[in-house]
Amino acid sequence: METIIDIRHLNKSFGSHEVLKDVNFSVNKGEVVTVIGSSGSGKSTLLRCINLLEYPTGGEINYRGENILSKSNLNDYRKHLGMVFQQFNLFNNWDVLHNCTVGQTKILKKSKEEAKEVAMNYLKVVGMERYINARPAQLSGGQKQRVAIARALSMQPDAILFDEPTSALDPEMVGEVLKVMKELAESGLTMIIVTHEMEFAREISDRIVFMDKGVIVEDGSPEQVFNNPQHERTKTFLKRALK
Ligand SMILES: Nc1ncnc2c1ncn2[C@@H]1O[C@H](COP(=O)(O)OP(=O)(O)OP(=O)(O)O)[C@@H](O)[C@H]1O
Ligand SMILES: [Mg+2]
Q1: What is the tens place of the pLDDT at every residue in 169-179?
Q2: Which atom of ligand 1 is nearest to 54's Cα?
Q3: Could you say which DSSP state residue 224 is in?
């Protein structure tokens, strides 16, 4: 199996606060890995280090076998990873279509026509092709998040990282976003997801990673981690989370 990202001994500190401690973890092509854990355990920091929104303090991030932290051109690496944020982070002054084409033309240097074709394809995947001329402010939260997913897909990345994609949504809109994510998981997209939606995580993940206080405590199949957790900390977390 092809490993896309392999993290070795990753550390991240903010000042004297060690937020990630010797994190080791890898993701294979087509795998869906869900990271769970309490607030402040370092889940977002881990995702942000993987796509270099935060620069790690130590360790290695191996991308297709090369430690990208030893390279000078990090943009080359960044464009291979997509990110979907809790707060959507769409460009509010631009319409839906432009949100999904601008990265393609500016970063991937595609022609406008080609970028539009790719964007339309993914906007159809998320069911937003009828809204190409709308501005984000005219959309519901669930629609905005589906556009954000189409924008990430339009860059045709090797993997997409999702940081609590449904946490900012009204409850009635959570389902439409999870449904799109489930379809993507089934289509073979490589995904690293942070979520508090435990049933969803159990259903779509190949692996569950439980983090506590900056450490990966448990990493296994949903069956192993949810039904047969090995560590006391995992059991305590799940008891609260699965209530
Ligand atoms: N830019 C920063 N500067 C200083 N401290 C930070 C920064 N970003 C995160 N932290 C700290 O790192 C720790 C882990 O934060 P992180 O956001 O990764 O947690 P999380 O698991 O994503 O939590 P949540 O479930 O609430 O989103 C927290 O103590 C947080 O205060
Ligand atoms: Mg977070």
Answers
A1: 999 999 999 99
A2: 1
A3: I
